[in-house]
Write the structure tokens for this entry.
Amino acid sequence: MYFPFQLPTDRAFDVAGFGTNAVDFLIRVPEYPPFNSKVELIDYSQLPGGEIATAMVALQRLGLKTVYAGRFGNDAAGMFGIESLKLEGVDTAFSEVIEGALTQIAFIVIDERSGERTVIWKRDAKLAYSPDDAPLSIVENSRVLHITPHDAQACITLARRAKEIGTAVSIDLDNTFPGLEDLLPLVDVLITSAEWPSRMFGIDDKREALRALRDKYGATVVGITLGESGSLMLCEDTFVETPGFPVPGGCKDTTGAGDSFRAGLLYGLVTGASIEESARMANGVAALKCRAIGARTSLPAHDELESLLGS
């Protein structure tokens, strides 16, 4: 089965990203501490992250052309974040540095036993976009727009323009935000965390929850990530359930695994792969990402992904 829509071909970029970037402070501990306790950390590191910025790096490493529009503070973290994208080849011409703002940060506690993480984050309100700020040029120059809904009204402006000119819209969603009711009907590829559709509709059965999600908002492809178990997607009336891959060498950190999954899926879409093969690519990128600490550290190159898929 193939994605039932055509992407434009005459665009400068394969995928445009609009949404979150962050600088992550990753703290590795022997086990996640209980409330009102102390634990000695194993080590810690400062690394670039953020859902959309990470997805653009993942796609760039796989060989696509990407552009990222987002805002950074004029602090050391901001300079670190922008430079991390430039070094990967992501176009940052539409990114901005906001005077007096602090770059989004996240403190991420990683349980060494499983690689599972807990994220504590903060985003400065000065980094927010209004609809008038929405960078329409990235939509007009890209085949796919990939967003997070933190600035929902700006996302709506971009998604409406995408609908007018045939740019596909993909969203990374794991929580409820104001404006979603107006934004989601404009989305073509809607991938959420495993729990979100069930929470949204009060339906425990994952397939029925996905049907409800599709019926309410009309996205062409809806799906959920299932961690190490893989993924489940629904296109038209067909479910595509795809197992995950074991992490080579064992899981070190799940930070950014969902971002990586979405990047792998979009890579399949842009390169003309079937939904089934795109889901395998998505699970493969996510598994390879988990080889090392950090959202981007072990994002694979194209040949690494091909090797895993062929194994």
Observations:
- The chain has a mean pLDDT of 96.
- The CA atoms of residues 26 and 108 lie 5 Å apart.
- The chain has one domain: 13-21+51-102+126-310.
- The chain is about 35% helix and 25% strand.
